[in-house]
Description:
The protein is α+β, with helices and mostly antiparallel strands.
Amino acid sequence: MTQWFSRGHFWTNFLNLEVERELGLVKVHSRFSTNFFPSWDRSQPMHVLGHNGEINTLRGNVNRMKAREGLLKCTTLGLSKNEMKRLLPIVDASLFDSVTDGCYLRATLDRNGFFPGRFYVTHNRRVIMASEVGVVNIPPEDVFRKGRLNPGMMLLVDFVKHIVIDDKVLKKQYSLARPYGGTAQKTDHKIERHHELFP
């Protein structure tokens, strides 16, 4: 990581970044591409999104669905073409990612929990999150709270209110925001009786 900064790669990606300024938020991601030969021109400066999983291109996702079209043709279910579109595959990526708009930072761990996501909250209200413990040296007496994201967990840092919102509070807040239960019942399609057709 130190080599990455010292070689000047960081600063050439952020030419408009003033070096002498107070920052409330810093996101760094130093992972290279894994699907093709790594090179600096293919590195991903994470201005808004940081992840340690795979994010495919739109073309790749469209081609993936076109390849599955033959499997989705079925008259036995009695579903219209529009209803069949709802049977798109569930995204089941293995990742730990974080997204920010400058006011909020949201971190999520996938439902399988393959990638670690550990965090510290210090007494002077710094939040440090990384895939491993020890990325930043923090004296134990400075740690107010520490934890890890479990499978499917989220963590939200609100830079406006200067608070950290935990998974349970965050999910409760959003689950009560709209009548999701009613929406799910209206769009639910039961296909148990047809399971013999799809080995």
